[in-house]
Amino acid sequence: MDPRLQQLLRLVLQEYVASAEPVGSQYLVDRYTLEVSPATVRNWFAELDELGFLEQPHTSGGRIPTEAAFKQFVDEMLPKPAPKRARDRFEAAVKAGDEHKLRAIAGELANLTGLASIVAGEDETYFTGLSQLLAQPEFRNWEKAIHLTALLEHLDETLSGLKKISFDEPIVLLGEDCPFGPACGVIVTKGPNNTLIGVLGPVRMDYQQAMSHLVSALEVLNA
Description:
Elements: H1 3-19, H2 25-32, H3 38-51, E1 54-55, E2 64-65, H4 67-76, H5 84-97, H6 101-113, E3 116-120, E4 125-128, H7 130-134, H8 142-152, H9 155-163, E5 171-174, E6 184-190, E7 196-202, H10 207-222
Antiparallel strand pairs: 1-2, 3-4, 3-7, 5-6, 6-7
Helix pairs in contact: 1-3, 2-3, 5-6, 5-10, 6-10
């Protein structure tokens, strides 16, 4: 992809993840002091539309990233360590949880990401952060909220399917590939004793931040 389009797409992704609102050309020019006119940005938007990375939900509004844009971002995402305070919080949570380490990790993972978290061991499964997840703007649409909660009622079946997937590194399943529905994205990894640990959010989640916290949680569990 042309570097100018790639940079513009990154800016749109960044702004959309933060606001959940369509991103306009004038806003980007002002926010990032771009040395081009809003009309030029709109022309670049049109090119990204044709490539399938942006869409215009309203005729007179800005653009939002497509599922393809998020998938490309995830594919190109570089590992980023979580802040030390995050690891400290995981370690403190595990110590406080004592015999319930998985429950403690799930709770702290949800708190740090502001999303939902899932931890499934051999005999226990914890899902927490549903209220945080449903508070995301995407789930103001009651049909999406009902669809998600219906899938969560069969959480054990979904997690059983995920456990059968062979992977050594954290994987991201989003949109049409996500077992929790096309409005969602999930990052999952495997811990000790085939424990499954995951972060569940809307497609619009901050994947890099969530991945960093997930890897930090895994390191603490493995310690």
